[in-house]
Amino acid sequence: MKKIAFIVNPISGGKNKKKIIAMIESRMATAGVDWKLCPTEYAGHAISIAHDADADVVVAVGGDGTVSEVAQGLLGTDKALGIIPCGSGDGLALHLGISRTPSKALEQLLGGVKVPMDACRVNGRPFFCTTGVGFDADVALAFAKAGKRGLKTYVSKSWSIWKHYKPLTYKVSVDGVEQEFPAMFVTVGNANQWGNRAKITPEASVRDGKLDVTAVKPFHFWQFPALGIRLFAGTANSSRRVVHLRGSSVTITRPSAGAIHFDGDPSEAGTTLSVSLSPSALHVVVPKGKENRI
Fold it and tell me: 259 with 215, same domain?
């Protein structure tokens, strides 16, 4: 790599980036490549910066939202995505084996390998890690609208929604084969996790040309710890309460419009969600030795 652009989100994950910026400046002074820092100023800014950057590698310095924006800007170009994760979830970075310690992530980047990875769309909107509907999407949307951040607010919103939550019956079509079942939520993964090593689609690969679907059937509150253990152990698909499907295109139909999440960001959508995959549509820099394990 001859030219690197670092796109920095100053507020992702609620973390001040001054120390990270200083670390980048110090290390890059002796890296022997052209580089520049590009701070974002508003939501969506990283997309245009990445698309217009005169660089071989464009690095997202931030959380899942920043990574997703930078990746969107790189679609259709020969530039590669790099990641220095410093968000609250860092789902794609963890899937790719990138360290959450910024200095280590930078060294992995400088010694890394450029490989192609799949990109996805839900109702035409790009995503690169996961998308989904149901309980987790409802909580994410309520949390985003709360005006307050932090674990306390998230737990409060989760409990408030859980107390009155009624699972929906979903129709899920994978490569034209449809199944119908009640579920707490349905997640479609390009990568294997939501973030924080919570592997909701543990068998997913960003290089296999396939989407992985995990649907969790209704369960009692007392069953949550066992499901949680499977989630972080990467064995969620072995639970009898989990439906696991795989294919190159997925359509989810639900009885009513509502919340949706993609790459950590919540929004609202209609009753039908069409998820498609474009094989090898994006280049990404991964740690050397990880290229065949993602």
Answer: yes
